């Protein structure tokens, strides 16, 4: 299978309010109040923008994040898993697993084509910024930095820092998907040429590799104003 097939179900950009098959039935939001920004409706055959559609059905090999999600689906009102099985419905503020922040994950074999990083978190109240880095030793191969108030603007700065020197920032976005107090799911897909980032099933940005030795990228770091619930590193077939 080539990459364009593998990416057949990568979320399309620009529209945060629609869902796709890859998300339906895998909604990690335990809150019974529907979140209007969370995709809910299946969307047939979403395709990567600008890529021809081969009409393929779904994310190949199933839904890569699903095995990692430790719960029954919240769709039938079962809510968040409780240690004591029983009929008690989960309250709206059901406890959520949280990982300590700053969060570090060693990438034993570096980064590679088709590596998929899935991050589930909640933006803290009154946030200034969230940072996700892929580091190669001292260097920042990919620094992804949503800022909530830079002179009154929301921006997502992407950059690399090689040999202690920051490069040219990439800042263009069509959509700033992070909302204070709200849960999000972010996916970073590594390809041979770039990283692709999607949040809540919408493609947000791509970032061409500036540090081409992908095997040297040995750490994922997540920090600043975020509460983390789950981080998974998987490989697309
Ligand atoms: C700097 C900031 C760094 C990093 C960099 C990205 O202004 O201090 O933490 O975000 O921008 O270009």
UniProtKB/TrEMBL annotation:
<keyword id="KW-0539">Nucleus</keyword>
<keyword id="KW-0399">Innate immunity</keyword>
<dbReference type="GO" id="GO:0045806">
    <property type="term" value="P:negative regulation of endocytosis"/>
</dbReference>
<dbReference type="GO" id="GO:0043236">
    <property type="term" value="F:laminin binding"/>
</dbReference>
<feature type="compositionally biased region" description="Low complexity">
    <location>
        <begin position="50"/>
        <end position="66"/>
    </location>
</feature>
<dbReference type="GO" id="GO:2001237">
    <property type="term" value="P:negative regulation of extrinsic apoptotic signaling pathway"/>
</dbReference>
<feature type="compositionally biased region" description="Pro residues">
    <location>
        <begin position="29"/>
        <end position="49"/>
    </location>
</feature>
<keyword id="KW-0507">mRNA processing</keyword>
<protein>
    <recommendedName>
        <fullName>Galectin</fullName>
    </recommendedName>
</protein>
<feature type="compositionally biased region" description="Pro residues">
    <location>
        <begin position="82"/>
        <end position="94"/>
    </location>
</feature>
<feature type="compositionally biased region" description="Polar residues">
    <location>
        <begin position="13"/>
        <end position="24"/>
    </location>
</feature>
<dbReference type="GO" id="GO:0090280">
    <property type="term" value="P:positive regulation of calcium ion import"/>
</dbReference>
<dbReference type="GO" id="GO:0001772">
    <property type="term" value="C:immunological synapse"/>
</dbReference>
<dbReference type="GO" id="GO:0008380">
    <property type="term" value="P:RNA splicing"/>
</dbReference>
<dbReference type="GO" id="GO:0045087">
    <property type="term" value="P:innate immune response"/>
</dbReference>
<dbReference type="GO" id="GO:0030154">
    <property type="term" value="P:cell differentiation"/>
</dbReference>
<keyword id="KW-0747">Spliceosome</keyword>
<dbReference type="GO" id="GO:0030593">
    <property type="term" value="P:neutrophil chemotaxis"/>
</dbReference>
<dbReference type="InterPro" id="IPR013320">
    <property type="entry name" value="ConA-like_dom_sf"/>
</dbReference>
<dbReference type="InterPro" id="IPR001079">
    <property type="entry name" value="Galectin_CRD"/>
</dbReference>
<feature type="region of interest" description="Disordered">
    <location>
        <begin position="1"/>
        <end position="98"/>
    </location>
</feature>
<dbReference type="GO" id="GO:0048030">
    <property type="term" value="F:disaccharide binding"/>
</dbReference>
<keyword id="KW-0597">Phosphoprotein</keyword>
<dbReference type="GO" id="GO:0005681">
    <property type="term" value="C:spliceosomal complex"/>
</dbReference>
<keyword id="KW-0677">Repeat</keyword>
<feature type="domain" description="Galectin">
    <location>
        <begin position="103"/>
        <end position="234"/>
    </location>
</feature>
<dbReference type="GO" id="GO:0005737">
    <property type="term" value="C:cytoplasm"/>
</dbReference>
<dbReference type="GO" id="GO:0048246">
    <property type="term" value="P:macrophage chemotaxis"/>
</dbReference>
<dbReference type="GO" id="GO:0002548">
    <property type="term" value="P:monocyte chemotaxis"/>
</dbReference>
<keyword id="KW-1015">Disulfide bond</keyword>
<dbReference type="Pfam" id="PF00337">
    <property type="entry name" value="Gal-bind_lectin"/>
</dbReference>
<keyword id="KW-0964">Secreted</keyword>
<dbReference type="GO" id="GO:0050918">
    <property type="term" value="P:positive chemotaxis"/>
</dbReference>
<keyword id="KW-0007">Acetylation</keyword>
<dbReference type="InterPro" id="IPR044156">
    <property type="entry name" value="Galectin-like"/>
</dbReference>
<keyword id="KW-0963">Cytoplasm</keyword>
<keyword id="KW-0430">Lectin</keyword>
<dbReference type="GO" id="GO:0006397">
    <property type="term" value="P:mRNA processing"/>
</dbReference>
<dbReference type="GO" id="GO:0048245">
    <property type="term" value="P:eosinophil chemotaxis"/>
</dbReference>
<keyword id="KW-0221">Differentiation</keyword>
<dbReference type="GO" id="GO:0005615">
    <property type="term" value="C:extracellular space"/>
</dbReference>
<keyword id="KW-0508">mRNA splicing</keyword>
